[in-house]
Amino acid sequence: MRVHAIxxxxxxxxxxIETSNNDTVIIVDPGEAKxxxxxxxxxxxxxxxxxxxxxxYDHTGGIAELLQETPCxxxxxxxxxxxTLTKTVSEGDTVTVGGISWQIFSTPGHxxxxxxxxxxxxxxxxxxxxxxxCGRMFEGTPxxxxxxxxxLRKLPGETRVFCAHEYTQANLSFALKVxxxxxxxxxxxxxxxxxxxxxxxxxxxxxxxELAINPFLRFDQKSVIAAASEHAGSVKxxxxxxxxxxxxxxDNA
Length: 253
What we know:
Blueprint: E1 3-8, E2 12-18, E3 24-28, H1 34-43, E4 46-51, H2 57-60, H3 63-69, E5 73-77, E6 87-89, E7 94-97, E8 100-106, E9 115-119, E10 122-126, E11 129-130, E12 133-134, H4 142-153, E13 160-163, H5 168-178, H6 183-197, E14 205-206, H7 207-213, H8 222-232, H9 239-251
Parallel strand pairs: 3-4, 4-5, 5-6, 10-13
Antiparallel strand pairs: 1-2, 2-3, 7-8, 8-9, 9-10, 11-12, 13-14
Helix pairs in contact: 4-9, 5-6, 8-9
């Protein structure tokens, strides 16, 4: 399966997934129409379907305009704020789109309606999980967000993580505050620095790498617990409390 990144806004990625039909693609989280339209024209492709992870405008704002040119199915979470949906999905559903079977995970935390799309080897997780970080907790609770991340942690390590923003370098800067002695993190931060100096994309990551460097997936590791406790003065040794402490730490950094 081939996946292409379409840049949008300042740091968004809209993903174009080639389908079994070489002439069409699945578009994930089109916050803007124009970059997608330009990419389709340059690559002689048309849209098969649109997948939506959550209702935020930078993930949905381009859908209506794209549908004017190419009416197609739009699949996303059951949220009436997303007025362009033609099919809603939720936890445990499996849908076939573009000849690909997708498993749906409910992953609230960033927003309450957030879902992620998974097919073996590929995870499209919107703003739930970033490389080196996770989304801000706008609507959910620490318990919800932690359960969402625990769900994603169970996927195979070789799973490629396609998140929706180029936040990797900033995330790693914070991750190094949490785990300054993490050798894998140090090495990855140097690699990402070189990529960004060349204005190159840092994604996708892999789940195996994220489990080694991402403090928001490592909330049960002794080094992360110790850092959270030192920062907050004290912290309960539970996943949701450690997660919430480092999430607030990063929000205020």
